[in-house]
């Protein structure tokens, strides 16, 4: 007897959704979306969610359909993919990603206004700080980075929880949080502004980028308390050797020229020199190297990679016997 009604209709819908070809098409669509995202193409919010939702429905229907239980390798394949989708969603909700400019010897917070943070991201990352002890970067023939090492500490509540040497493509890792470093971007000019009776001098820093190619053109704004904004132009001595590798070090000669604000004429300061300004004293402390620290927390990445490697094995185990059987029948 043929059963007609809601139950049979649901069975037909389930059978149509449990389609291996549809699974392959949706996986291909997801791969294209990932490639577009990696290329910097803005995808919005809804398109990835729609593809992810369709893939989840397809995998769930495939696992729930009774014919899948007659083919265990195929059921394992869909189960692994469904687990990977769930882990991807969990990783997205738990992720934390930020790029933090860091200067040698100055602890900086990992939390920045531009950080990408999921609602389940660990709260301790908001209060953690990173301290770069040393950037050790070598260049070859003026502009090509040859090697680099960054020695840093990860601080939580004023306590060092990680000390590591970070190299290119070799991040420091702690509890699923990875710290990558790209050192040797340039120098940070460090200033101290002291006022009578105000206690400790206030430190300020401005970053000078791309100093290797155009050191004479580097200028940034410097905000001085109770004074206003000045324009600071950095001038340094010889930075690169043309005949061999060069290690990033503070040059022997450095000078900052300040202009604007209450200054009538531009004033130049060497390292350690001071200037009376706004009832206080502004001192050019010197130059420190700076770079970028990339923070990435995604606890699902390793598990997704493992499941992505195992799922094709299950699919191959399902298809290989059928393919061999068809080959044998064709030879007969």
Secondary-structure topology with pairs:
Blueprint: H1 6-17, H2 20-38, H3 46-64, H4 72-94, E1 96-103, E2 108-109, E3 116-117, E4 129-140, E5 144-156, E6 159-167, E7 172-174, E8 177-194, E9 202-209, E10 219-224, E11 228-236, E12 245-247, E13 254-259, E14 267-270, E15 274-277, E16 280-297, H5 301-331
Antiparallel strand pairs: 1-3, 1-16, 2-4, 4-5, 4-12, 5-6, 7-8, 8-9, 8-16, 10-11, 11-13, 13-14, 15-16
Characterise the protein shown here.
There is one protein chain. By secondary structure, the chain is an alpha+beta fold. The protein has five helices and 16 strands. The strands form three sheets. Strands 1, 3, 7, 8, 9, 15 and 16 form a seven-stranded antiparallel β-sheet that branches. Strands 2, 4, 5, 6 and 12 form a five-stranded antiparallel β-sheet that branches. It has a four-stranded antiparallel β-sheet with strand order 10-11-13-14, with no helix packed on it. The longest helix is centred in the C-terminal third of the chain and has 31 residues, at 301-331. The radius of gyration is 29 Å and the shape is elongated. Residues 1-5 and 240-244 have low confidence and may be disordered.
């Amino acid at each position: 007897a043929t059963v007609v009604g809601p139950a049979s209709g649901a069975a037909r819908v389930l059978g149509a959704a449990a389609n291996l070809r549809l699974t392959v098409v949706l996986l291909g669509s997801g791969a294209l979306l990932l490639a577009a995202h990696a290329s910097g193409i803005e995808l919005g919010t809804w398109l990835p969610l729609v593809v992810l939702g369709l893939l989840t429905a397809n995998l769930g229907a495939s696992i729930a359909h009774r014919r899948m239980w007659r083919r265990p390798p195929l059921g394992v394949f869909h189960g692994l993919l469904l687990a990977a989708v769930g882990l991807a969603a969990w990783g997205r909700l738990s992720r934390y990603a930020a790029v933090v400019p860091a200067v040698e010897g100055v602890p900086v917070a990992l939390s920045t206004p531009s950080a990408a943070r999921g609602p389940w991201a660990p709260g301790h990352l908001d209060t953690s700080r990173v301290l770069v002890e040393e950037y050790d970067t070598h260049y070859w023939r003026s502009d090509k980075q040859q090697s680099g090492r960054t020695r840093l500490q990860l601080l939580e509540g004023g306590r060092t929880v990680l000390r590591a040497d970070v190299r290119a493509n070799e991040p420091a890792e702690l509890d699923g949080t990875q710290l990558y470093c790209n050192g040797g971007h340039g120098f940070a000019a460090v200033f101290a502004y002291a006022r009578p009776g105000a206690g400790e001098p206030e430190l300020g820093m401005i970053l000078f980028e791309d100093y290797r190619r155009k050191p004479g053109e580097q200028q940034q704004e410097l905000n001085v308390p109770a004074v206003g904004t000045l324009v600071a132009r950095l001038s340094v001595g010889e930075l690169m050797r043309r005949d061999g590798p060069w290690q990033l070090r503070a040059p022997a000669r450095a000078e900052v020229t300040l202009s604007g604000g209450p200054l009538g004429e531009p004033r130049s300061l060497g390292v350690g020199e001071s200037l009376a300004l706004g009832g206080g004293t502004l001192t050019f402390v010197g130059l420190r190297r700076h770079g970028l620290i990339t923070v990435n927390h995604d606890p699902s990445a390793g598990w997704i990679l493992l499941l992505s490697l195992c799922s094709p094995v299950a699919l191959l185990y399902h298809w290989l016997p059928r393919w061999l059987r068809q080959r044998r029948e064709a030879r007969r």
